[in-house]
Design goal:
This protein is an alpha+beta fold. It has one domain. The chain is built from seven helices and 13 strands. The strands form four sheets. A five-stranded antiparallel sheet has the order 1-2-3-7-6. It is globular, with a radius of gyration of 18 Å. 34% of the residues are buried.
Length: 238
């Protein structure tokens, strides 16, 4: 399968961190987004969310917990494993990734790279929905190497029966292809069909769609996205 994201494989490498910046993606062109704006789009927006697991394995030699609700005392001693779940086939996510590339070059990209990034942003995903997953942590030890190995070593055959998109009404589409975590900086890529019986699987009327993937007995990713919030430049982006 040759979906458009492979156009810039290897071109974008960066460290992603979360942000609590206010939403700016509909207020000005993406070329004017600040670093906080781009991180907001990637990690806390209608197209990009974070599923956090607690990881206290270094301190207590235990496995990860799920969905932390830390208080200030716990915050200092608890490490978090952050799975960044994004609709890579949604234009705002691709714009945010491209914006980071521009910022890293001090807005002085060479012509070839600039053209590749523009092609990446303008790519059409007529047949596929692509969810990308990255994982990061403030502590490079603990469960982070384990989580990255899961994303790096899994195959479509191993994931196809327990990775799917499901609507609020219960309709599901299952994984059709998987591209493992690599050095391209875009994350592991979960590919789903965009059309079911010739019709879009997701529409504005869908209401809510959830991404589910059971990576292992310890890590099952679940993240909900609301379609009413996924309108960008007058178009439903996913």
């Amino acid at each position: 399968m040759n979906f458009p994201v492979r156009m810039i494989s290897g071109a974008v490498c960066f460290l992603l961190v979360s942000s609590i910046a206010s939403a700016q993606w509909n207020k000005r062109p993406y070329t004017e987004w600040s670093p906080k704006d781009t991180q907001k789009v990637l990690n806390d927006s209608p197209w990009g969310q974070t599923h956090a697991f607690t990881d206290m394995s270094n301190r207590f030699n235990t496995g990860p917990g799920r969905n932390p609700t830390p208080n200030q005392t716990e915050e200092a001693s608890t490490n978090y494993l952050n799975f960044r779940i994004r609709f890579l086939s949604a234009k705002p996510i691709r714009q945010a990734l491209s914006r980071i590339m521009e910022e890293q070059s001090n807005n002085e990209l060479d012509a070839q790279t600039a053209a590749r990034l523009k092609g990446f942003i303008d790519s059409e995903f007529a047949e596929h929905i692509v969810i990308s997953v990255m994982v990061d942590s403030r502590d490079s030890r603990g469960q982070l190497p384990v989580a990255r190995a899961l994303l790096r070593n899994q195959t479509a055959g191993e994931l196809k029966n327990n990775s799917y998109l499901v609507t609020k009404g219960g309709q599901r589409v299952f994984l059709i292809e998987y591209y493992p975590l690599s050095a391209d900086g875009l994350g592991a890529k979960f590919v789903f069909p965009r059309l079911v019986d010739g019709k879009p699987f997701i529409t504005e009327d869908t209401g809510e769609v959830m991404f589910v993937s059971e990576l292992s007995s310890q890590y099952t990713l679940r993240m909900r996205f609301k379609t009413k919030d996924m309108i960008y430049d007058g178009k439903l982006e996913y």
